[in-house]
Design brief:
CATH superfamily of the largest domain: ABC transporter type 1, transmembrane domain
Oligomer: single chain
Helix content: 55-70%
CATH architecture of the largest domain: Up-down Bundle
Number of domains: 3
Mean pLDDT: 81
CATH topology of the largest domain: ABC transporter transmembrane region fold
Length: 610
């Protein structure tokens, strides 16, 4: 199987733009960030002062080599104090910056979730959950890592290099500073060049990682389908192929990292050797003391050991920036349905819903609805029926404003949907969808989700109206029963009744039933229809139905075919027209008669067998 990895579009974010995107999160902590930088500078000043004191100690002892040695106590105490100061200031930097690092990660995670909820339904229908979750996990984690790299590795090393080079330039031959700068410049240029080259392996590794994770999550979410078709080996092979590609890229990433480290080691060794040769010559010539040699050597160790690590850090920083690019690119994605700056809360007085010459298409080349025009008067029930793919469920999505209409408008009590806030619109509407998906939590949580502030008595009352209280009460854990991933521990009918209870608890003014009884048997359906009839009293109700027997009492029935209303009227009026509705009614009646006959035959066989 050929597996492709995801490429960034040609207009991909650059590293500078990614860093700028991180700055707003730091603004809330700028005081702490500045304090951390202050402690960083103090730590490095103390660190640079250590070799200077060590030089004085060596020179002091060296000048008394033929005399009685007197310990330079002040210098030794200063040496210890500077070491303590360096360590203490580093720890203070860590303590002060901990709030910044974790706070930025928290704020970023919350904003990403808010943004995901703000994106339109189209995005969520097209996204791959596993890949998105892995990209976002890497992005938020990398933001914290990047801050660590900047404050704890890159900035300290650069500050130390600057301080050491300045000290060498002021106190010794300019060649010491020149060689130091040349070594650092060559080192950085080499590191940048090789790291940019090897990033291609990291990019592909991340893409295959996300792809493999997406495949694993999809196969687990569709566990039953995998079992139905006996495709475990197919899923394992597909997952293994993605991981094999990931493994190849991971190996290349590590191999190229080793090549980078070897090259960096060569550059550092050459620079250190050149500087030590100059220092040794200076001591032999008498222009430098033994203490100066020790100082230069200590400076080189202090500078090049972390600089050697800086190469690894730079690579990790590039990786972190790349991982953050996907997350920030997602945050820049604009919601398809935008809130108007002048939008006002929806005011529901009567609850009249009106579709006025509505046209809509999911894509420009795929129009779904044509010139849809109807009204649901306050307190009445309008049903929409028609063949599969006629566009029935699209009406509910438009009423919830998951999409904006292509032409025409939808109004509630004369207020066009784009003129009202989305939250107030959705507060006013309750829906029982055809495919009910529940949270992996308790039954109580799933019902109370409609109104978290509701009392337990209200939750139980809603369950009773939805004809599911007796079932819940009979369970060993009652309302505390966990329903499993997407509610898979419940049957389709049980899930729909939980959804109905949830909608009842919400107490909306406008109700939508999208084939709400499709998963129920005839007996349960009849009981639930009576409950829904009580619930829908004095509510504006839109019923999207497949079973025509469930909507014979509707105030008006719309027959939708190929995105157009082809018939409308009461049940008896539509039967009299001998059109599409009458044809669908006859087919369903024949089907019910066949099912009833089969049940009678099975009953007789059971009696004979008994």
């Amino acid at each position: 199987m050929h597996i492709r990895y995801t490429e960034l579009p040609s207009g991909q974010r650059n590293d500078l733009k990614t860093l700028r995107s991180l700055l707003p999160y730091l603004k809330a902590y700028r005081g702490r960030a500045l304090a951390a930088l202050g402690f960083l500078l103090l730590a490095k000043l103390a660190n640079v002062g250590i070799p200077v004191v060590l030089k004085e100690v060596v020179d002091h002892l060296n000048t008394q080599v033929h005399q009685q040695i007197a310990l330079p106590l002040v210098l030794l105490v200063a040496y210890g104090v500077l070491r303590l100061a360096s360590s203490a200031f580093n720890e203070l930097r860590d303590v002060v910056f901990a709030r910044v690092r974790h706070g930025v990660m928290r704020r970023m995670s919350v904003q990403v979730l808010e943004h995901l909820h703000a994106l339109g339904l189209r995005y969520h229908l097209e996204r791959k959950t596993g890949a998105v979750s892995r990209d976002l996990e890497r992005g938020t984690r990398s933001a914290a890592s990047l801050l660590n790299y900047l404050l704890f590795s890159i900035l300290p090393t650069l500050v130390e290099v600057g301080l050491i080079a300045t000290f060498l330039l002021v106190n010794y031959s300019p060649w010491f500073a020149v060689v130091t700068f040349i070594t650092v410049a060559v080192y950085i240029a080499f590191t940048f060049a090789i790291t940019e080259w090897r990033m291609q392996f990291r990019h592909k590794m991340n893409a295959y990682d996300s792809q493999a994770n997406s495949q694993a999550v999809d196969s687990l979410l569709n566990y039953e389908t995998v079992k139905y078709f006996n495709n475990e080996s197919f899923e394992h092979r597909r997952y293994g192929e993605s991981l094999l590609k990931w493994e190849e890229m991971a190996v290349k990433t590590q191999t190229s990292m080793s090549s980078l480290n070897i090259g960096q080691g060569v550059i550092i060794a050459m620079g250190v050797t050149a500087i030590m040769l100059m220092a040794a010559n200076g001591v032999v010539a008498g222009s430098m003391t033994l203490g100066d040699l020790v100082l230069v050597n200590a400076f080189m160790l202090q500078m090049f050991i972390p600089l050697n690590f800086l190469g690894v850090v730079y690579g990790q920083t590039k990786h972190a920036l790349w991982d953050m690019q996907e997350m920030f690119a997602l945050l820049e994605r604009q919601p398809e349905v935008k809130e108007s700056p002048t939008a006002q809360p929806l005011v529901v007085t009567a609850g009249t819903v009106r579709f006025e010459q509505v046209a809509f298409g999911y894509n420009p080349d795929r129009q779904v609805l044509f010139d849809i025009d109807f009204e649901i008067p306050a307190g009445q029930k309008v049903a929409v029926v028609g063949p599969s793919g006629a566009g029935k469920s699209t009406l509910s999505r438009l009423l919830f404003r998951f999409y904006d209409v292509t032409a025409g408008q939808i109004t509630i009590d004369g207020q066009a949907l784009p003129q009202v806030t989305q939250s107030s619109l959705r507060d006013a509407i309750g829906i029982v969808p055809q495919d009910t998906v529940l949270f992996n939590d308790t039954i109580y949580y799933n019902i109370a989700y409609a109104r978290p502030s509701a009392s337990r008595e209200e939750v139980v009352a809603a369950a009773k109206v939805a004809q599911i209280h007796a079932f819940i009460d009979a369970l060993p854990q009652g309302y505390d029963t966990v329903v499993g991933e997407r509610g898979l521990k419940l049957s389709g009918g049980e899930k729909q009744r939980v959804a109905i209870a949830r909608t009842i608890l919400k107490q909306p003014r406008i109700l939508i039933f999208d084939e709400a009884t499709s998963s129920l048997d005839s007996q349960a359906e009849q009981a639930l229809l009576e409950a829904l009839e009580r619930v829908a009293t004095n509510h504006t109700t839109l019923v999207i139905a497949h079973r025509l027997s469930t909507i014979v009492d509707a105030d008006q029935i719309l027959v939708l075919e190929a995105g157009r209303i082809v018939e409308r009227g009461h049940h008896r009026e539509l039967l009299a027209q001998e059109g599409l509705y009458a044809h669908m009614w006859r087919l369903q009646q024949e089907e019910r008669q066949r099912e009833a006959e089969e049940e009678r035959q099975q009953h007789r066989l059971r009696q004979v067998g008994g």
